[in-house]
Amino acid sequence: MGALLSLPLLALPSLGGLATFAASCCGAATCSAVCSACGNFRSSMATRIAFAFILLINSILSWLMLTPWALKKLEHLTLDYMSITCQGKQCYGWVAVQRVNFALGLFHFILAMLLLGVKSTKDGRASLQNGFWGPKVLIWLGFVVMTLFIPETFFQVWGSYFALAGAMLFVLLGLILLVDLAHTWAEYCLDKIENHDSKGWRVLLIGSTLSMYTASFAMTIVMYIFFAAGGCSMNQAAITVNLIVLLITSAISVHPTVQEFNPQAGLAQSAMVAIYCTYLTMSAVSMEPDDKHCNPLIRARGTRTVSIVIGAIVTMLTIAYTTTRAATQGIALGANGSHAYAKVSDEEPEHGLVEQQPGNSRREMRAEALRAAVEAGSLPANALDDDDDDSDDGGEAKDDERAGTQYNYSLFHIIFLLATMWVATLLTQNVDAQAEGVAAVGRTYWASWVKIVSAWVCYIIYTWSLVAPVAMPERFGH
Question: What is the pLDDT of residues 297-308, one digit of tens each?
Fold first, then answer.
């Protein structure tokens, strides 16, 4: 953080090294003070947002490392001790991007190992997840500095093999969660309609389904008009395949056999998968290079820099959001194991057994019972002080993980580790070593094909979720 604050000062040689050093120190001190003021988050949402923000900052910093300007400033920060090269030649940030993302990935890997087995905030290690933000930020920045002293050959191997494998796993993970979201959304709406006879939810479900299909077909028409001209066989094939598979999966979702084994399947889920996969296809054709004159957006020079900057920031925000959501959906990934993670719910549990998230009325009844027992002499007076679930300062009301964590902490950090690999891979594929100014994110054939194939894989996963109950009825209780 201090290095970021000191970059603008390097453009003013008259300020000298003293100003640079002061900016670096103040940057680190300010960051530490701000994060320390956050204290120990009692809201799991605040913790997730904080980690997502760190990933966002790290991703933007990685993007800046692709530009010659940022590399020159980075070399100047090390007093010209470090020269960033790829096999002896300038590569404008290939290794720098790998260094920055490896540092954050290592940070999350260590946290994943330290937080193994944490099931509630009563475990002292939970504070490593929800607190110590000042030290954690300083450790992360320390790892970034540490990577400057690791030989570049290590990052050549890491980026070419390990980071690439992790990136593909992260993409697959996102597709699985998208399909899970589609089913969850439709089932939630159907539950509201069937159990509450809600006209509002019925209108919402039907309206959203029609809207998503309309948007999917509209994007398809736009792609055919602007990106499927003569000679653009790759775009024509990708758009056509997406349209055909969209229609096939929609038909499968309402097939009588599928409906018999899975009555909740339908066009609502298909619409969400359709619009996402169509968006992936449109993103692929609109971000490919223009060497075959198939991408008119690149030829619009007037807004090129603005579109690159906006596109990069939107990409980083999307990655941060997707990562945070994926990292907290352990149950959807089959990672719930033997520990049932607490759920945030506005409704009281229907059973009268053990509950992970007691309501305010239960806490009040418990406190009243304890006070009555102390007054009757059945319990010592310090029983009220030792009760962790009813603190006088109301902290338990803020701590939504006192009875049980809402997600697997270790899995959370492993997925963030995979996200750093995806960011590094996305930014470093086919880097243009002669590019000046800001670098376009994902404007390569590699990135376009990753999106196209991802759309196809998403259709396959969704189709399997429809036919699996038919193919294996005993496993699904039929």
Answer: 766 654 455 656
